[in-house]
Every structure is written in structure tokens, then in C-alpha cells.
Write the C-alpha cells for this entry.
Amino acid sequence: MRQQSTRKRSSRFRIFRLLFFAGLLMTLACIFLVSTLGSQKFGGLHKLILEAAGPVQKVVASGVNYLGSFKQEYLDVLAVGEENKRLWQELQESRALVHKSREAMATNARLRKLLAFKDSSDLPMVAATVIGKDPSMWFRSLIIDRGTSDGVFKGSPVTNSEGIVGQVLTASPHYSKVLLAIAPSSAIDVLLQKSRVRGILKGTGSQTYRLEYVLKTVEVEEGDVVVTAGYGGMFPTGLPVGVVSKVIRKRRGMFHEIEVRPSVDYKTLEYLFVLQRKEPVPQ
């Protein structure tokens, strides 16, 4: 029943719309004919038709104006959207260029620093680039793009402008693995620069060293500089290694417990120097 009543109302509404539009078209046609073919004097019928058709024309004109303004606003919105896309793309491109520029400036600064270090040193060395890392705890190491064909052998010291990085663990003709000085398996003969007292610097696996075998009778303070001792011909004498960051004085035992902060930032290693040798260091 509800569906039938709904259908009846829908059909009535359609008939009403058809009659309305038919009447509107007839009214407009009458106005056109009277305005075109009639005399210049307005009769009663002419005035009546004009009075009846005026509101209809006003509504139609308002609707047409509204649709025109809506269309223009829609086109304006589309234009703004396209402009936003274009500006966003330009912003992304500008950001990429700024990033590249900053990276180039940072790389240039690092290379200038390395070049200055090489020019100030009398040691024969070859530049190398880090191409890989070994994340293992015990053998913390790097892979560099230099090998035996470049005068790089097992035991060759590796450094940068800040200080000692480590030593070559193994080498092939064109690539080498570098054992970092912070690796627990690393041990280097060093000196406290101020007192010239010798000790053994061992890695901890983290961003610190441990300086061992320094007697308690030796005065050690935070900030003391630690350099390579040069014993055994492995590392040249006097290369910077780190700075004493903590001294633990205990009642028992013969030696200090000393923590050393590396002079090298191991998190940002990219370019290195390998001190060249004509042949491998005897093991």
C-alpha cells in the first residue's frame, strides 16, 4: 500500500512539473510575440501578462546568475588547487637543493680538514673511503676501498685528522678490513702526554677506551691527553688517541682504573688515511 501511494505521489509530482514548465514556456512565448508583433502601446492584456511573467523571469535570471557565479568559483578553486600543487613541488625541489648544498659543504669541510692533516704530516699515507661496517661487538670493523695494491697491509695504522682510528686487520688487492681501536680485541701502546707514562689502551666495544697498567703512583687527571707510544713499530709516536675522561682511584690493586674518551668520532667516519708500508708488519 505504501509503495502504491508513493508511486501515485511521484506521478502527480511529475505531471505538476510538466504543467509548470509548459506554462512557463507558453508565458515566455506570449511575452516574446506580444513584444515583437504587438503595437508599441501596452494594452491591459499585455500589462497583465508582463505582471505575471515578471516574477518568473526574475527567478530564472537569479538562478542563471547563481549558476554562473558557482561555476566561476568552482573554476577558481580548481585553479588554486593546481597552483598549490605547483608551489608544493617547487618547495620540495628547493628543499632537496638545500639539502644537497649542505651535504656538499659538509663534505668539503671534512675533505679540507683531511687535506690539511695530510699536508702537515711527513708520513706517507693513502686516502680511503669507508664502504661498509661490521656491527659485531668483538670485532668492530670497517671495510675500506684500499688494499695491497695501494700499499695497505695487515697491521697498517688507520687514522684521520682527529687521531687514531684503528689498524688493518686483513687486506685483499683492492679492499681492506679495519679493526677499530674501540673494539674489545684491540690493544695499543700509548703514553700519557704530560707524564710520558706508558700504558695499554684497550677498546670497550662502546665509544670509550680503557687505559690499563698505569701505576697508582702516577698522577693522572681528567683532561690528560693520550698519544701513541710508537713501540713495536706498529704506530708512529705522538698520534692523538684520546683524552682522559675519568679516573677511579681504589684502595686495592696497583693500577689506576682510567677511562679515555676517543679523539675520533666513530659515528661519523667516512674518509680515512692509511699509513703506507712497503711490506706487512711482522706479526
User: Anything to note?
Assistant: The chain is about 40% helix and 25% strand.
